[in-house]
Every structure is written in structure tokens, then in C-alpha cells.
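Example record for the data management plan.
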Amino acid sequence: MDMYNGLEEQYRELLNAAKEAMGRAYVPYSHFRVGAALLDTDGTVHYGCNVENAAYGPSNCAERTALFRAVADGKRPGQFRAIAVIGDTEGPIAPCGVCRQVLVELCPHDMPVIMGNLQGEWSASTVSELLPGAFTSSSLEKEG
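Corresponding structural encoding:
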């Protein structure tokens, strides 16, 4: 039986792709694997996993890896339809604050964010619901 039964087929496939990406994580310090799968407007899936570094600061989350990879592959902000993220957590894993900020910058604000875990639990939100009152490019504009 599919562990994401009842979830829209496209999102179920995206969660399964995120699980595949999770297996590629480089986590020699935390041993906490996270995978992400980003669907673009052309139907291409961009994979991401967390990549750690001994200095900790240069580490990168799975969601940002998928987003940055997609941009490096030629996608532009706004050309994404959904992202799924998965981890071996008690409940569905949610993007960290830094990833939420990057999602706001690169993705449509109504884009679905599907969060899951290895036990088959999931939840869905939108980019704007995950970071209300976000700092955006309009925040940099000066008045008058």
C-alpha cells in the first residue's frame, strides 16, 4: 500500500522523489538526512539533499540545494510549481526559517509546500503561509 494514499498523485510522486534524494544526503556530523524535490513549470524535478560541513555554517539544507540547483540549471524565479521535503521525523518535517526566506524569494507565494516523514504522514501549506510578513524585494524600496 502507498504510504501517501489520498494525497494528490503528483504530490505523492514528489514526496517519493524527495525520499530518493534523502538517500544522497551528506550528513557525517548530525546523521540527520533530509531530501527535497522541486517541481518546475516544465515538469522537471530538481533534487536536493542536505550537505553538511565541519564548520557547520557552510552546510546547506535540502530545500535550498534543490532551489539553487534549479536556478543553476537555468530556471528563473517563479518557474516552480511545488516542492516536497521529507525527513525521518516524528511528524511531517517543515522547512527551516532560512529555507522559507529563499522559497519566498524564488517561488510563487501560493506554491504548495508538501511536508512528509518516513511513516507516511504529510501536510501541505503554501510558501506565504509558511512565512507571513516575509522580507521581500519590495522591503528594499525607499519611499519618496
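Summary line stored alongside the record: The CA atoms of residues 18 and 36 lie 4 Å apart.
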